[in-house]
Amino acid sequence: MNIFSIVGIAIAAAAIAVLLKRYNNVYSLLIGLAAGLLIFFMILNQIQPIFDEINKLMNGTKTDPKYVSILFKCLGVCFVSQIASDACRDAGETAIASKVELAGKFTVLLIALPLFGEIADLALKLMSK
Amino acid sequence: MGIDLVFKIAAVGIIVAVLDQVLHRSGRDDIAMITSLAGLVIVLFMIVEQISRLFNTIKSTFGL
């Protein structure tokens, strides 16, 4: 993840997208999507040390590894839905973009649902003491 | 994959735009529409490959 190459890709892609917008709007959307994917891949290839560090810290606090995996799953859902909603918003379809975001929010909620039950259990346990 | 993908899409876009204009000027509107559709399909196939790669990477990275 060389920040200078990412900046170069972003500016080149933006220039090409503006150039093509005059002839055909769809191609500028697709170029935006391609450049976004490219930059995202560059980030994902380098992100592993951060995950390892977070896992190490969580292991140090004796947190259940189930919770860490829920955290990462939510992060992945957020990334995917953000990419899709940004692409839709670029194309001018804000309604579809907000629906994708809504779907992402509900998916995150669905993934985190087991945690709510555990919080309720904990609260009940504290109250009965 | 690199910046080549962006340049490839740009090349297809420019070629299709030129072909579209030439065909419109010569009065072949139906062929112009088919040309722009074909260009769009080609570019979509290029993108879809990368999107599936992205999904696989995210699935393996975030354990989805």
From TrEMBL, chain A:
The chain crosses the membrane at residues 27-47. Pfam families: SpoIIIAC (PF06686). Keywords: Membrane, Transmembrane, Transmembrane helix. This is Stage III sporulation protein AD. It comes from [Clostridium] cellulosi. The lineage of its organism: Bacteria, Bacillati, Bacillota, Clostridia, Eubacteriales.
UniProtKB/TrEMBL annotation, chain B:
Keywords: Membrane, Transmembrane, Transmembrane helix. The keyword Cytoplasm does not apply. InterPro entries: Spore_III_AC (IPR009570), Spore_III_AC/AD (IPR025664). The chain crosses the membrane at residues 6-23, 30-48. NCBIfam families: spore_III_AC. This is Putative membrane protein. It comes from [Clostridium] cellulosi.
